[in-house]
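Regression report. Comparing outputs from two consecutive submissions.

Submission 1:
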Amino acid sequence: MAENLKMYIDGAWVDARSGDTFDSIDPATGEVLARVPRGVTDDVGDAVAAARRAFDDGSWGTAVAERDRAQILLRMAQLVTEQRQELAELEVRDCGKPIADAFGDIDEVAFMFEYYAGWATKIAGDIPPVGPDAMSLVVKEPVGVCGLIVPWNYPMLMAAQKVAPALATGCTVVLKPAEQTPLSALRMAVIAEQAGLPAGVFNVVTGLGPEAGAPMLTHPGVDKISFTGSKATGTMIQRTCADQLKRVTLELGGKSPNIIFGDADLEQAIEGSALGVFGNQGEVCSAGSRVFVHRSVYDDVLQGMSDFAAGMKLGSGLDPDTTMGPLVSAVQRDRVQGYIDAGPAEGANLVYSGQRPDDPALANGFFVPPAIFEATNDIRLAREEIFGPVAAMIPFSDVDEVVRLSNDTEYGLAAAIWSRDIGLALRTAKAVKAGVVWVNDSQPAPSEAMWGGYKQSGIGRELGPYALDAYLESKQIYINLS
């Protein structure tokens, strides 16, 4: 590729005002895929102004019939499906994940646009009783211009997770993709244009976080920020947006417990737990990286997890046999490797560590093989979000102990529980402080359901009908009938 790409602002493909670019890197090879505009404050201002005009002048939102919005979203879904192969390969090249995973992501992107197309015509208000001499109408209206900032682990999927409900409710959008993975966001703009979305409704500004993301936080033309990423950045976003009381949705990090009871189906639990840590190279906010195992089956699970990790094939995501690709960048590779290197000095026992791929073409790729440690819940490996394929195995003796250990974290995004005893599983699910709890499974995130966390894992909820509220205002219209 190595082509010069452009941003999408007000229905036009444009360079950054400065003319500056940055490189998008193939994480499997370290080679440059494309040069992308390096947007900064002025470029963000252009995109916000376009989104503001489109919202205020009737190009979208309350002046466009709900069924018309639905039809455009349905066309976007159809176009994603038609371009499935190309989009999946683009995602693999940009973020490194195996092609099978990328196909799954793209299929879900198509479904998200279809799903929220259905909601566009079903956003209803209410008529609360206010006595015989008056009537009160509570109506739902789009919040306005939305700044959407998305991460690099599921680039197109996370973008669609925000873009689809925002458009369905009638909002206009400025999308800021992660600088590591901008390519599929730009392709989403192509799809939006092909689907007939009016100019200014959907804009994409590429650039670095401090230069292209931060200006959206303080821009008075942005009504809402939705961010998915690290807790540190989310904390800064909330603090910055507080000055304008700007509406904020934050989906942040996790250090999720994965609990295996002694009566679990061990074959199912081992495979599901391993995928819950090592899937998507461990670059998953909900990864079950703290694996709590009942002492009665601890040795069996430890061996099973090690065997599973040993069977994983590292390589280019474009190779259909690959089950683990590279991490997204050299920075992320070094960060994850730093946790692995420091583990033994902190008291963790390294049980398994895999090998990098031996293909010379991948010598400069950002690969980190899976690693499994025996650990305690009080060391960095078990407390900090690593965002890589690193498992901390921790034994427990009873349900009270594992609930206490599971909740002993600043995070509360997700948890997985493995047991044949549904009563035990549900009692544990109720006791664990997490926004999403899986029983005898790990990591499913259906678009029809809900997503979001407790504690420092975020504010607000995404997916399903729950996402719509983040992009809507409620207005009461009171009518005197006397």
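Submission 2:
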Amino acid sequence: MLDDKGFPFIVLEAKKEDIPSLAGKEQARKYALAQNCRFIILSNGNQHYLWDLYRGNPNIFSRIPSPETVIGYNTFKLNPQSLISEEVKENYIIRTQRPDYDKDPIYIDETQRKNFLEVNKLSLLRKYQVRAIERIQEEVKNGKDRFLFEVATGTGKTLTAAAVIKLFLRTGNARRILFLVDRLELEDQANKAFKLYLRTK
């Protein structure tokens, strides 16, 4: 596929239906590098992958993406420095939920503070959750772009995920977020939680 200036933009590596789409991965990479293309589509007619050579491994798609979709990826530029320098404290989520929370007289009164947070459903990050976000920032500073948290049940994974989502969206390092779960009830639970954590007043 060519861009609007007539230069190669996407390499399409097509295989027969009975051959895995990824079978031509290395061959396609050579073609792409020779043509100075960033993107590769790998398909056997049933299974399709979009491969951004700048971003690691191919990602599966339900259908072959349009050139316009891929152009969106091409124009999107990461901003690692803004992510690294973003200040994340225990009130990182609350600042989204209710930016002026700390000016409320009830919150200022330390004897009523806990009740104020509970009544208004405001969520402070725990120290280890803040530390998890800081570890992402440290890894980005070291050139990494993949992260894995492994924590026990009941330790606030969804709240931590909300903070990560806010971090990437707020700093311009993501346009959309895909959050995967393995059960429908978890989908509903996560959806309600994210609306609570990331709502704006």
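Expected: both submissions complete independently.
Actual: both completed, but the second showed a warning that disappeared on reload.
Relevant detail on submission 2: The first strand starts at residue 10 and ends at 14.
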